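Anyone up for a design puzzle?
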């Protein structure tokens, strides 16, 4: 089981992306977050192929905080079925990963 993960989601506007990132860091469910965008997403929804502009939010967290972070995103997201994906961090700077863990402790 990984000790650290990146939880990512997409939103329909930069303001919503900033709000989600801020709430995650404020709640100590994420050590930091990056917002990437605008990006173009192509997907099937309700039987139609759609193309929309979105912003991606990538939140770094300790693995034991990921479940609560996913719930925070779900509760504060405007989409019916938001993209929420957790990707394990396989390695990295020991100092950074220690900081990441420390920033996600209540």
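Challenge accepted. My sequence:
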């Amino acid at each position: 089981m990984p000790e650290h993960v990146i939880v990512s989601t997409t939103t329909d506007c930069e303001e919503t992306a900033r709000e989600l990132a801020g709430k995650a860091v404020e709640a100590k469910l994420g050590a930091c977050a990056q917002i990437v965008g605008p990006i173009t997403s192509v997907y099937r929804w309700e039987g139609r192929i759609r193309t929309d502009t979105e912003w991606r939010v990538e939140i770094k967290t300790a693995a034991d905080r990921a479940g609560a972070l996913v719930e925070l995103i779900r509760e504060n997201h405007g989409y019916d079925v938001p993209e929420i994906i957790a990707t394990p961090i396989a390695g990295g700077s020991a100092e950074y990963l220690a900081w990441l863990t420390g920033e996600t402790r209540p």
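A detail worth pointing out: Residues 14-26 form the longest helix (13 residues).
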